[in-house]
Design a protein that fits this description.
Blueprint lengths: L1 H12 L5 E5 L5 E8 L3 E7 L2 E8 L4 E9 L3 E2 L3 H8 L11 E12 L2 E11 L2 E17 L4 E13 L12 E14 L2
Antiparallel strand pairs: 1-4, 1-11, 2-3, 2-11, 3-6, 4-5, 5-7, 7-8, 8-9, 9-10, 10-11
Length: 185
């Protein structure tokens, strides 16, 4: 019996081979921060996302594709959200998705430290680097599923995507934070 328990733990704790994980939308959010008139930092998030995380720990390769629903924008104030989803800002009806697609995973020694990719928003494609502050793959003991999770942050200039409204009163620089969890199907 002890032999079976040891074997079970060895299998559960062994590193995962290359795998494709599906993003868990209930644990994945893209949030943003932007200066508001120099008085405060306004924050919001997008509540709906999907995508995949593919990772091979042995070869230190993989990819991350995240689709964010623009209409799921949420700043906690419905009137402002309606304006931001509208034709003067995110044009959510014409551009329903914001995409991040990785091009290269960057490692510092054994640790994933950044992801270079592109951000696609409002029909514009711009390079973006996400600095990774936390990354882990393994067995989620609560769900009993293998998964990967990460916290990352990047900076963009909204004017590069045609979002010029209110500059310089509303900041051009936007900090994008992404928390993601993805699991094997």
């Amino acid at each position: 019996m002890n032999r079976i328990i040891v074997l079970l733990f060895a299998v559960l704790l062994a590193p995962a081979d290359a795998a494709e994980y599906t993003i868990d939308p209930s644990h994945t959010y893209a949030s943003f921060e932007v200066d508001h008139l120099g008085f405060s930092t306004q924050r919001g998030q997008f509540n709906r996302s999907s995508g995949i995380v593919e990772f091979n720990p042995e070869e230190k390769t993989g990819r991350i594709d995240i689709s964010i629903e623009a209409a799921s924008l949420d700043t906690g104030f419905e009137l402002r959200d309606d304006v931001l989803r509208g034709d003067d800002w995110f044009k959510a009806k014409d551009f329903p998705y914001i995409f991040f697609r990785s091009q290269k995973l960057i490692f510092t020694e054994e640790k994933l430290s950044a992801v270079d990719g592109v951000l696609v928003m409002l029909g514009e494609i711009r390079p973006m680097r996400l600095e990774v502050s936390r990354f882990k793959c393994g067995l989620n003991l609560a769900s009993r599923k293998r998964g990967c999770g990460a916290d990352a942050i990047g900076v963009l200039r909204r004017s590069e995507f045609g979002l010029n409204n209110g500059i310089p009163f509303i900041g051009d620089e936007v900090r994008l934070r992404v928390q993601v969890e993805a699991y094997l199907p």
